[in-house]
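Hi support team,

I've been running sequence recovery on a batch of backbones for a student project. Most finish fine, but this one hangs at about 90% for roughly twenty minutes before it completes. I'm not sure whether the input is malformed or the queue is just slow. I've pasted the structure tokens below so you can try to reproduce it. Let me know if you need the job ID as well.

Thanks,
M.K.
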């Protein structure tokens, strides 16, 4: 069993579709083993997306991720990291595959509904960023 970190982004909490996104996650065989709704501070968003700090879209990304509440979650399955990236679809919904979360719900390349860890190593770091062991070790 593997775990990955998911974030349902502000465009989705704003449209009240977090349940619809969760249904797609569960239908794909991923189990939601921890979940909470929070509002990120600017400092937290900057730290979480530190890897993108030199990109032109970084200020916009931080502004968007702090513009409303997010739902952070830990997903579990065999091959969870790769499986979740697959059902999320491409970063840009215009080129995402049919049936993916982003193709179905994303509004644009920035308002793209979900985040998912891109490697097992980053999944570990990102899960520890948001969850303490008492919240997930069950
Ligand atoms: P990912 O979320 O598919 O892993 P990343 O390249 O890690 O994509 O980028 C992180 C997030 O930054 C994206 O999900 C998206 O919200 C935003 N982003 C990425 N590229 C662009 C861009 O070219 N314009 C605006 N926002 C972008
Ligand atoms: Mg990424």
């Amino acid at each position: 069993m593997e775990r990955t970190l998911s974030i349902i982004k502000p465009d989705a909490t704003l449209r009240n579709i977090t349940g619809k996104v969760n249904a797609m996650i569960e239908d794909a065989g991923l189990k939601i083993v921890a979940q909470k709704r929070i509002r990120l501070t600017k400092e937290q968003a900057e730290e979480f997306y530190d890897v993108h700090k030199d990109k032109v879209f970084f200020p916009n990304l931080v502004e968007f991720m702090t513009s409303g509440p997010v739902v952070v979650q830990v997903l579990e399955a065999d091959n969870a990291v790769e499986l979740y990236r697959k059902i999320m679809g491409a970063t840009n919904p215009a080129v995402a595959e049919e049936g993916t979360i982003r193709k179905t719900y994303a509004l644009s390349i920035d308002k793209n509904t979900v985040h998912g860890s891109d490697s097992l190593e980053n999944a570990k770091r990102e899960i520890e960023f948001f969850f303490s062991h008492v919240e997930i070790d069950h």
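--
Follow-up from support: It reproduced on our side and the slowdown came from queue contention, not your input. The pocket of magnesium ion (ligand 2) is lined by residues 118 (CB under 6 Å). No action needed from you.
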